């Protein structure tokens, strides 16, 4: 089985077209077809159903995708590691992060990383749910995930920080003038929620349920930026991560309102995740070192692998 066959397979699976896959690989369509046919003969199963111009994955093809991706990723990681050793600062990192982290937390960290390793190529993908990021990590699609802290037997995770949430209102809202309200008072106002599938939604909704009130939900949104603009327009109030509204609070387009009858502010635990027992290529090792030091933490990933190497 050749890497060229796997590459052709993944391109056809992605584009659902032999011709578009050939264009992306700078090959002729017969060459791509020949690679797929050769791969199917070696595997002993059809990977695609071809009906006229339509190309769909068979069950076998669908099952083969993560393994093909993992094989190519392993080869790329090996190449990156060799290049990094040879040149000192060449490689690539694929990061999956929740949208709020990618938008408001990572820009400053990645700026400092680029100053240290200017030739490292960075691919940043905004992940959806934490479970999706973990799946992409296991499949080899990303090298590191930064999302809500979770546990998985194949993944090593470290707590980075607590993502504090804050209630915000339009600057002319009565809450803004008062500065402090109760949870029950907040529940009686039109409330803007983040999408139901997100951890933010469950955290905020649970905060109300714990005191026996149900908020008047008038809108669910899938974007922090959109939610902020809706609050600024006076369509409701919202509880959002502090890091996402710091600029608006500073310039006065949003007002921060304290909730006085909470034991502690609502928050989400944020963690960084890598595959367990996987060797770290130098660029990823340096990124993790910078990331953990940003929050005053030791680089436990690197330490853990050094201990394993010493005991093996």
Write the layout of secondary structure elements.
Layout: H1 3-15, H2 18-25, H3 29-43, E1 48-51, E2 54-57, H4 59-87, E3 91-98, H5 99-104, H6 106-116, E4 120-127, H7 130-139, E5 144-148, E6 155-169, H8 174-178, E7 180-181, H9 183-187, E8 190-194, H10 199-209, E9 216-221, H11 224-232, E10 238-241, H12 242-251, E11 255-259, E12 267-275, H13 282-294, H14 300-311
Parallel strand pairs: 3-4, 3-5, 7-11, 8-9
Antiparallel strand pairs: 1-2, 5-12, 6-10, 6-11, 6-12
Helix pairs in contact: 1-2, 1-3, 1-4, 2-3
Features:
two-stranded antiparallel ribbon; 312 residues; Arc Repressor Mutant, subunit A; D-Maltodextrin-Binding Protein, domain 2; elongated; 14 helices; alpha/beta; disordered C terminus; single chain
Question: TL;DR?
Answer:
The protein is an alpha/beta fold and 312 residues long. The protein contains 14 helices and twelve strands.
Describe it.
The chain is α/β, with parallel strands linked by helices. Among the domains are: 3-67, Orthogonal Bundle (Arc Repressor Mutant, subunit A), CATH 1.10.10; 164-268, 3-Layer(aba) Sandwich (D-Maltodextrin-Binding Protein, domain 2), CATH 3.40.190.10. It has helices at residues 3-15, 18-25, 29-43, 59-87, 99-104, 106-116, 130-139, 174-178, 183-187, 199-209, 224-232, 242-251, 282-294, 300-311; strands spanning 48-51, 54-57, 91-98, 120-127, 144-148, 155-169, 180-181, 190-194, 216-221, 238-241, 255-259, 267-275. Strands 3, 4, 5, 6, 7, 10, 11 and 12 form an eight-stranded mixed sheet that branches. It has a two-stranded antiparallel sheet with strand order 1-2. A hairpin with a 2-residue loop joins strand 1 and strand 2. The relative contact order is 0.12.
